[in-house]
Design a protein that fits this description.
By secondary structure, the protein is mainly alpha-helical. The protein contains four helices and two strands. A two-stranded antiparallel sheet has the order 1-2. The longest helix is centred in the first third of the chain and has 26 residues. Keywords: Membrane, Transmembrane, Transmembrane helix.
Length: about 110
């Protein structure tokens, strides 16, 4: 690819990314009395999807754990408990996921 083709490709990707981020607000956003309101459907999705995605993440993380062989899934269970405790203490999803991931890596590489 030439430099011009690379710049055009990056510009197209940036425009497509921006468009996909803005489109839901254009389609589902409403204005009443000069104030922008979010559709009840989108609010429902906003309330439903984060816990559903976290549930799917938990299932995905435990899908290959063999609780009846090897270390019986102890690193996964301990890292999950640490993640839950950090989240209950700090209420920060990023911090709890980071601490849980680091604790799992330490447990797998140095403890078990």
């Amino acid at each position: 690819m030439t430099v011009v083709q690379q710049v055009i490709s990056i510009a197209i990707a940036a425009i497509a990314n921006f468009f996909t981020r803005v489109m839901p607000f254009l389609v589902f956003g409403r204005q009443r009395n000069g104030k922008e309101e979010v559709s009840p459907f989108i609010e429902g999705l906003g309330n439903f999807l984060p816990p559903a995605i976290m549930g799917m993440l938990v299932v995905y993380c435990f899908r290959n754990v063999h609780f009846l062989s090897g270390n019986f899934g102890l690193p996964e269970i301990i890292a999950s408990i640490i993640t839950i405790l950090v989240h209950l203490r700090r209420r920060s999803m990023c911090l709890s996921l980071l601490v849980g991931t680091v604790s799992y890596i330490i447990l797998v590489n140095f403890v078990f």
